[in-house]
């Protein structure tokens, strides 16, 4: 994991532990809670010191925070012992003098760790390996660790016995909480057995420590104090969504403040105890889901403060098999619907623009292209000045028509309802047609254009899409090939897949240009070897159509040595 992300997540865990500590502090007079507060505080100090250790670079700094970790862990043990004794009702067995003695033992051991550089009682070896502090414990330290773990195991056993005897509906959740809260303990045992695992076990301990504390808090609220009702009120009333809870009889038994305000805005001052048949009469689908206690979603409309609002209502059953009721979450989607309508309007405008470009711009350009092609065929009848004008005019019309075609095809590729019409095609014939369309452009630069696709090569593709892709690749090849160069289109078929390539011996590209070639953000066009202009849309449109056809497109090139563009389509035998 990225070190920065790891530190952020660990810091978030410490903050959440602090929030839990704040809530638990409000119940400090309840049985067992006072020592639970100390336990959570020690875990917070332990987690914070791990973060500081990971953020430090010097051995001395890391060692200080490691000592702080050890101190926090040491004090967790007496807090845990006294917490268990108070929880199970045996706190009278622990006299005040014994409590002082218990804390004194662990305080003394913690003090030894801070002076261990002279005493060498705790650590046998301390090393900084790859930025991580790795320690090797002495026999005394290992023995003390085993003693602590034995004490914790004893406390867990007492908790286990206690949970076994509580009410049956709390027994299973309590066992799960006890099981989950043991993950930090298991990680500390692993650290003792395998010290070299410490760098990554420390991070896990922060996360699992928070989880363990959260589980313990949940366990305690089940039996002794109202952490969840208190937290529930804060959480539910903070939500901007309305929450409505019904029972199996179809009566509303609970709701949050937002739901009360929402119904009050429609004239229902009190909703608790109301029947959904009456209250939800304007919204039959929502009422049906609540009455049947089925999971589902309904879209409803309501008028609040003279404004029409749209809501999504998500209904979830409570204990579906036993049919105990349902929970409804009402989400305001009015703004979302407005945005969707705006998007729909923009899409309609785009389609209108598409139609305008298709009929009012492309058609005249196509006619001009045909006329200029006829003039170019008879250009020998003109003098030199007129031939030059006809050539320049032809280049401009071809470039404009090519740009328009690419723009239209790009619009077409963005339509979700665009349907391709694949069929079996003779690839060499399609390639020959494309070469013929670009013949004037290639002959103007004296470039040899060769169709090397053998007759009988069959592909399964949309003819318009295949022609568009080939024309774009051939046009680019001619554009970036110097006078007297060559362009070649070829194909090979294997495993029912045809790989078509367009190669040239033009200016080529460096590795960086190749990597940026198909990026939408890099939508620009370079001048050709004869100053030809473009929009950069051709490759983008071609790649999108190839991918929609189930193929892929890539390029290979070296600066000064030409380029090869590849794309794949389905090929092989027909049928």
Automatic annotation (TrEMBL):
Keywords: ATP-binding, Kinase, Membrane, Nucleotide-binding, Phosphoprotein, Transferase, Transmembrane, Transmembrane helix, Two-component regulatory system
A single GO molecular function term of this UniProt record: ATP binding
Keyword ATP-binding: yes
Topology relative to the membrane: Multi-pass membrane protein
InterPro entries membership: BphY/WalK/GraS-like, HATPase_C_sf, HATPase_dom, His_kinase_dom, HisK_dim/P_dom, HisK_dim/P_sf, HisKA_7TM, PAS
GO biological process entries: osmosensory signaling via phosphorelay pathway
Keyword check for Membrane: yes
Residue ranges crossing the lipid bilayer per the database entry: 6-26, 33-52, 64-85, 97-115, 139-163, 175-194, 200-222
Protein name: histidine kinase
């Amino acid at each position: 994991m990225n070190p920065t992300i790891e530190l952020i997540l660990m810091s978030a865990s410490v903050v959440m532990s602090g929030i839990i500590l704040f809530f638990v502090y409000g119940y400090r007079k309840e049985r067992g809670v006072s020592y639970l507060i100390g336990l959570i505080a020690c875990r917070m100090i332990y987690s914070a010191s791990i973060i500081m250790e990971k953020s430090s670079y010097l051995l001395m700094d890391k060692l200080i925070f490691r000592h702080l970790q050890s101190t926090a862990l040491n004090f967790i043990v007496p807090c845990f012992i006294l917490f268990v004794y108070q929880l199970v009702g045996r706190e009278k067995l622990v006299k005040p003098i014994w409590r002082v003695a218990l804390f004194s033992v662990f305080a003394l051991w913690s003090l030894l760790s801070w002076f261990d550089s002279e005493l060498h009682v705790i650590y046998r070896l301390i090393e900084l390996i790859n930025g991580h502090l790795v320690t090797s414990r002495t026999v005394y330290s290992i023995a003390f660790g085993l003693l602590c773990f034995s004490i914790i195991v004893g406390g867990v056993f007492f908790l286990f016995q206690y949970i076994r005897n509580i009410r049956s509906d709390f027994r299973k959740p309590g066992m799960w909480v006890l099981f989950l809260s043991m993950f930090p303990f298991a990680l500390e045992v692993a650290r003792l057995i395998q010290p070299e695992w410490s760098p990554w076990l420390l991070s896990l301990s922060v996360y699992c420590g928070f989880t363990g504390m959260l589980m313990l808090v949940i366990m305690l609220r089940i039996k002794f104090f109202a952490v969840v009702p208190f937290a529930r009120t804060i959480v539910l009333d903070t939500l901007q969504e309305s929450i409505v809870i019904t029972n199996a009889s179809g009566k509303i038994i609970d709701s949050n403040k937002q739901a009360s305000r929402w119904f009050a805005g429609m004239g229902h001052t009190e909703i608790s105890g109301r029947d959904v048949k009456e209250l939800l009469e304007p919204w039959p689908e929502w009422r049906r889901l609540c009455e049947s206690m089925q999971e589902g979603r309904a879209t409803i409309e309501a008028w609040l403060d003279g404004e029409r609002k749209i809501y999504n209502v998500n209904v979830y059953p409570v204990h579906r098999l036993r049919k105990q009721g349902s929970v409804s979450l009402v989400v305001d989607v009015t703004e979302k619907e407005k945005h969707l309508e705006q998007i729909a309007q923009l899409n309609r405008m785009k389609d209108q623009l598409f139609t305008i470009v298709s009929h009012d711009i492309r058609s005249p350009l196509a006619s001009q292209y045909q006329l200029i092609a006829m003039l170019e065929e008879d250009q020998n009848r003109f003098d030199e000045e007129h031939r030059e004008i006809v050539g320049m005019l032809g280049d401009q019309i071809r470039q404009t028509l090519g740009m328009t075609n690419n723009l239209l095809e790009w619009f077409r590729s963005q339509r979700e309802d665009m349907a391709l019409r694949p069929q079996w095609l003779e690839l060499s014939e399609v390639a020959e047609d494309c070469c013929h369309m670009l013949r004037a452009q290639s002959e103007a630069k004296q470039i040899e254009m060769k169709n090397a696709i053998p007759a009988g090569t069959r592909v399964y593709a949309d003819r318009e899409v295949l022609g568009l892709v080939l024309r774009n690749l051939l046009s680019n090849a001619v554009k970036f090939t110097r006078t007297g160069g060559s362009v070649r289109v070829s194909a090979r078929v294997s495993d029912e897949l045809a790989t078509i390539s367009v190669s040239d011996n033009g200016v080529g590209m460096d590795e960086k240009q190749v990597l940026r070639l198909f990026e939408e953000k890099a939508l620009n066009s370079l001048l050709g070897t004869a100053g030809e202009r473009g929009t950069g849309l051709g490759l983008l449109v071609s790649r999108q159509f190839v991918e929609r056809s189930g193929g892929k497109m890539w390029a290979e090139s070296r600066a000064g040595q030409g380029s090869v563009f590849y794309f794949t389509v389905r090929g092989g035998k027909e049928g």
